[in-house]
Amino acid sequence: MEALEIVRQDAVSFVIAPEIDQQSSATREALLGRAMGLKWKRKSSQKLRRGRRPSEGLAFVALSEDGVLAGTVRLWDVATGDGRPALLLGPLAVDPSLKSAGIGKALMSHAISEAKRLGHKAILLVGDAAYYGRFGFSADKTGALSIPGPYERHRFLALELVSGALDGAHGTLKPTGRKTRTVRVAAAA
Fold this sequence. Notes:
The protein is α+β, with helices and mostly antiparallel strands and 189 residues long. The protein has helices spanning 25-36, 46-49, 103-117, 129-132, and strands at residues 5-9, 12-18, 59-64, 69-79, 85-89, 93-94, 122-126, 145-146, 156-160, 171-172, 174-175.
């Protein structure tokens, strides 16, 4: 795996790298459960991700020096109700034992930078405005947008990577990304 960025924060060193083929799904799921609680799969934003693959080139992991998964972030292709393409960020998760080591910040900064480099125009997410505000996210452009299912409106945030990309955007977000491959298992005769 090609390391994209080596980060040293206090006594913690980690590598930000592309996620490889859903990088041990069980390990990632366990990390998400530890970081976000067991109900993370029931969040409304998960409905937009279910059955889809992350946007091409926009799934990243943070690995400790010994190769242990320390954090994860993915971005997903969506469209606004009026058809504008955008990305949905999440979930962002860091192993609770490494909280405040700068891993979340490094993952966010890298994900935003790569999304911009790849030509995407806007990123949306549902999250804590105090945390995501430091990266430029706000609720200023989400007033006429919504996501399927219940969510707290003040936590629905956006970051324009291209100024004006969400001007006048409205409607409910829809998933547009690549679908996951389903593996069919033949029944034994």
